[in-house]
Fold these 3 entries.
Entry 1:
Amino acid sequence: MPAFRNVRAAALPAKLSRSWLLASAADEANFAPALASEADSVVFDMEDAVPAAGKIEARKRVVEALSTGMTAWVRVNGMETEYWAEDLAALSKAPGLRGVMLAMTERPEQVTHTAMRLHAGTPVVALIESAVGIENATAIASAPGTFRLAFGVGDFRRDTGASDDPMALAYARSKLVVASRVGQLPGPIDGPTVGALGDELLAACKVTASMGMTGKLCLLPEAADTINKGLSPSESEIKWAHELLDAHAAGAVVGDGSYLPRLARAEKISALADSYGLWNA
């Protein structure tokens, strides 16, 4: 494991990743700090973070990084752009590629065609950023190659005219959550709360979690740890799960019809606490 990669984060399965840090491929100096951060998953960004004139050079520096010891996800340009095919052709040869995030996903076949151009089994996160994409989310979630769904909040708002009020975005978030469940995917990844840190970011994570989303994009390395905390079981939830599971192991009797659902929730919290290393936090 290269010394610059956060060992804890590197060992966490991407289906459980809470923080997804976008590191601009406009400058290779962004890569190492991102990989050393607390972000569960790091995404080298060749799309929105890079102007058209810099796309080819950005692709070269990403492939170089992924061929010399670094491991990361990569956000590739949308299928309708002139860069998509070359992005995938270059990345298919990069040994450090963990998966791709497909920008501007609107149809299920876009994910499938993307996956087909990469090594078999390479996961694809479908970044949904438009009204068309939201309405097709169930089909996208069920498409061969789709690993998780992600919400491109900024472009969705530009497409629809919606504000950043949680109520204005509730339908889109709910659609992604239900679609993910139908497609038997991990919970979807929420969009970034640009510029937010500390309590403001924690409040945004509460919205994310309340909608049933289990990950969140971010643009700053220092945001990752806050997102990890905001999207993990709380101390009170872990304590409750611990007590219920201990009582169950000791032979507690089922009291009513809510017991088995509560037991299942406690087991889920327990599994997440183990995965995130929270029992002794």
Entry 2:
Amino acid sequence: MLRIAVPNKGSLSGPAADMLHEAGYQQRRESKELRIVDPVNEVEFFYLRPRDIAIYVSSGRLDIGITGRDLLIDSDARAEEILPLGFARSTFRFAAKPGQARGIEDLTGKTVATSYEGIVAKHLVDSGIDASVVHLDGAVETAIELGVAEVIADVVETGTSLRNAGLEVFGEPIMRSEAIVIRRTGADTEDSAEPKVQQFLRRLQGVLVARTYVMMDYDCRVEQLEKAVALTPGLESPTVSPLHNEGWVAVRAMVPAKEAQRIMDDLYEIGARAILTTAIHACRL
């Protein structure tokens, strides 16, 4: 069986379970379950702390895992990213009291508090900055107020908690993170698990495409077909079928979901009618 690590809690857990369910995999029914077997798909899921997943995968005990890019890099584990998943996006940045620093060059000689010591220490060394790093678990916003550090480095999503603490971000982002699929570095592609790993990745890629595109159907006059096809080129090309009424055709194509309304407006302007969009639940490209 393919052995897969899945986040057991936090911002990664729910979206990861939803994506796996959409990909056709059985998921746990109760949060207390730490392991389940999906016999139909020959997969065994292990629900682990997101911060520990890279360690388990790097050991070779588990074949692949879902975790955050920030957690993978911070762990310094021998595992690598093989597929970005597009959820749990965040930016990792420095923050301090207003006016205390403008860029990373202002951190020389200062102390930085963070829960991601590995990421921050490497970033400072790579940037040639001599600064101290203090590791704290949990919220680090109070580190400056309590005098533990002059600067913090943390995940920033909306920035509300930083502003509430009287802090502001500065400099360029340290890194941008999102949920990813990881695998042990140097994993043998001839391994017996490889076909199932590739099948797993294809399923998740299918979910990503299904979330990104919608299917669009419409009717248009033959003389407007080229203009319509230019608006809806599809992936390879659209499907075009003649209608019973002479001079009309039906067109079907995949279009980006975020552009669907604009495309519908443009199609209507050139004379297309009966324009419909349909959600895509699964696909293979």
Entry 3:
Amino acid sequence: MPNKKYKIAVIQLNLNDIAENNLKKCISWVRDAASQGAEVISLPELYSSHYFCQSEDVDNFALAEPLYSTSFTAFSELAKELGVVIIVPFFEKRMAGIYHNSAYIIDTDGTEAGLYRKMHIPDDPAFYEKFYFTPGDLGFKNNPTKKGNIGTLICWDQWYPEAARITALKGAEVLFYPTAIGWHPQEKEQYGENQYGAWMNVMKGHAVANGVYVAAANRIGLEQYLPDTPGIEFWGASFIAGPQGEILAQASHDKEEILIAEVDLDLQENVRQNWPFFRDRRIDAFGDITKRAID
């Protein structure tokens, strides 16, 4: 029988360091989360390095790793030791010239419960991800684990209701969003509040529209690794929301933290029974959604 209740966690960290140090740091924080009762634990996007997409530089491809190498080995052993599920977002080298922004979902026995490759790739000032990442080709997935059904999307995916919907329709109880989102320091005073508010609103909307739990794991800190540039101030504020969009746990903008909340499948079912959005979907009328524009 599946678990009716289980505890999930997101870890909010400053990751502006080299891969070896970030790995050690994240292992330590996952241990702390597990010691506090967390059973499914997510790290932020691209955990092993600073956010290198602020520039287009071929040298940064050296930060990528092949499948089932350093990150998988380390967190597979840790998941098995602790008996927890770990979501590990990493920079994947698939082959020469093909790289992905990916995440392992590692089960409690150390096996791979799933692999997700980021589907939506941004290309904005200081977020030049299209230079590095090939769009994902595995689609949107529910990943059954020994703790629960886990869906993983990554950062820019968070703005797309279709991604959340499909993942939920496939059976995901929780949508995890490993994230690296922040302010351009020169824009923060004028636009920062609205940008952060939009992020919170759209994510809570995914929870409401799909009757799912939503958990976002963000970075913190100013990452200014390029000389004579303002860098990016990652806004933290990681959170876990329930199936009515209610905030169950919320982090600060500037501190490293662990957030833990309980997933209650009986509550989720009750919400969906009373707000039967899935029942009333007019799937016969949605064909145009697959078009780029409806001219």
